From TrEMBL:
GO terms for cellular component: mitochondrial matrix. Its EC number is 6.1.1.20. SUPFAM superfamilies: Anticodon-binding domain of PheRS, Class II aaRS and biotin synthetases. It comes from the Eukaryota. Keywords: Aminoacyl-tRNA synthetase, ATP-binding, Ligase, Mitochondrion, Nucleotide-binding, Protein biosynthesis, Transit peptide. Residues 346-442 form the FDX-ACB domain. PROSITE patterns: AA_TRNA_LIGASE_II, FDX_ACB. This is phenylalanine--tRNA ligase. Residues 68-344 form the Aminoacyl-transfer RNA synthetases class-II family profile domain. The keyword Zinc does not apply. It is found in: Mitochondrion matrix. GO terms for biological process: phenylalanyl-tRNA aminoacylation.
Length: 442
């Protein structure tokens, strides 16, 4: 059996495992991630470059902008919610990013055919294990542990496009707040969380649905509206703490499989509306399956990078991963609530090269997965890849051969790249594309 230490390999094409299967389908590699072994299969698509980010924990690094935003959010919940003089919320910020598909999808009622499960969207270790795509993946396990109010903070992994605001790894704060009847209706003991037709003691015998856009069928309107009011008030308070009392906000109805009703909050930032978080009332099926069958809960998720980039005027998400002292020192030894505006140390020029190739007969311009190509480019070019864009699709009128053209923008954050350096990386990408996808360079 082949063993591949993915966190030590310098370069391995993202589709290496797929190609290995074609050559030796009976010899599937074993992947070793953080001292634990996982059996690869035909779904595996995690790459060494992605795994190299696993131990960085930027959200826990002192004075890092992501850590500052994390601490400000934690402080808000600590100060806003107390129980007998102690914080009511517990914080979990060092949970393993390797989770099961059950945790990431099934426990959250995400349907089998939901696009978020697609191999093109997630980094799968194998068909039953992946790098978490959201911190909500830990929600059920914490509820089963008996927790009612908690924050989950960490790095999450999604295959995505490449530009100044998208990176395959980013950081989230997710939260759950649960309330029983005696707490929710402390001043109105005659009101109920559940409809009289619903028995919370035997939820498996009661059919809950989300046909009504206003509430889940098991919940009373009073309980839903009171939780909605609390949720929105708490989150408005949070964005005011982060962006100031004058920040404008609005609520947009949304859909998430694990909450109903659901909303997104947008703030008016730099003359346009920017979405900053998603939230909603937790589906009762999730609570019942996790233990608390006599409560109602709200949940929300917020991305740290988006908040930090807006607060500190950071123009490129890659800077979050920079070890450049010119970047990091701007946030060191500063008050947590200080008004910091990032000042570019210097601006280095871009180098742009196009890459065109003919697709093999087994692929078309519509079935070729750009995210597969983006991962390959990242694996080879690393953090000097600033942006990759699909520039053109072409079908030859006579031969019917199909072609794609991608524009790749190279820029180093700390020095000027020479064209010779760029050309070498570009040639390596060409060779890898030929090897991995069977394309013919034009």
């Amino acid at each position: 059996m082949t063993k591949i230490l993915l966190n030590r390999v310098q370069y391995l094409p993202s589709s290496f495992i797929k190609l290995s299967f074609c050559r030796a389908p009976k010899s599937l590699p074993i992947l070793q991630i953080k001292n634990k072994e996982y059996q690869a299969d035909e779904i595996s698509n995690v790459t060494p470059k992605i795994l190299s980010y696993l131990n960085r924990n930027l959200h826990l690094q002192k004075d890092h902008p992501l850590s500052k935003v994390r601490q400000r959010i934690v402080n808000y919940f600590y100060s806003s919610f107390t129980h007998r003089g102690n914080p009511a919320f517990s914080v979990y910020d060092n949970l393993s990013p390797v989770v099961s598909t059950k945790q990431n999808f099934d426990d959250l009622l995400i349907p089998e055919d939901h696009p978020s499960r697609a191999k093109s969207d997630c980094y799968y270790v194998n068909s039953t294990t992946l790098l978490r795509a959201h911190m909500t993946a830990h929600q059920s396990e914490l509820l089963k542990a008996g927790l009612e109010n908690f924050l989950m903070i960490g790095d999450v992994y999604r295959r995505d496009e490449i530009d100044s605001t998208h990176f395959p790894v980013f950081h989230q704060v997710d939260a759950v707040r649960s309330q029983r009847k005696e707490h929710l209706f402390e001043n109105h003991p005659g009101l109920e969380i559940f409809e009289t037709t619903f028995d919370p003691e035997t939820p498996h015998l009661c059919q809950n649905n989300i046909i009504d856009p206003v509430k889940q069928s098991c919940h009373t309107l009073e309980a839903t509206k009171l939780m909605e009011a609390q949720l929105k008030n708490h989150l408005v308070g949070l964005v005011k703490v982060l962006f100031g009392d004058e920040i404008q906000h609005r609520w947009v109805e949304a859909y998430f499989p694990f909450t109903h009703p659901s909303w997104e909050m947008e703030i008016f930032y730099e003359n346009k509306w920017m979405e900053v978080l998603g939230c909603g009332i937790v589906r009762n099926e999730i609570l019942a399956a996790s233990g608390p069958n006599n409560s109602i809960a709200y949940a929300f998720g917020i991305g740290l990078e988006r908040i930090a980039m807006a607060l500190y005027k950071i123009p490129d998400i890659r800077l979050m991963w920079s070890n450049d002292s010119g970047f990091l020192t701007q946030f060191q030894n500063k008050d947590l609530n200080a008004n910091i505006t990032y000042k570019p140390v210097s601006v280095y020029p871009q180098c742009t090269n196009d890459l065109s190739f003919w697709l093999p007969s087994t692929l078309t311009v519509d079935t070729f997965m750009s995210n597969d190509f983006y991962d390959l480019v990242r694996d080879i070019g690393g953090d000097v890849i600033e942006q990759v864009k699909l520039k053109d699709k072409f079908v030859h009128p006579k031969t019917k051969k199909q072609s794609l053209c991608y524009s790749i923008v190279y820029r180093h954050l700390e020095r000027t790249l020479t064209q010779a350096e760029v050309n070498k990386i570009h040639k390596d990408i060409e060779r890898a594309a030929q090897q991995v996808f069977g394309v013919q360079i034009r």
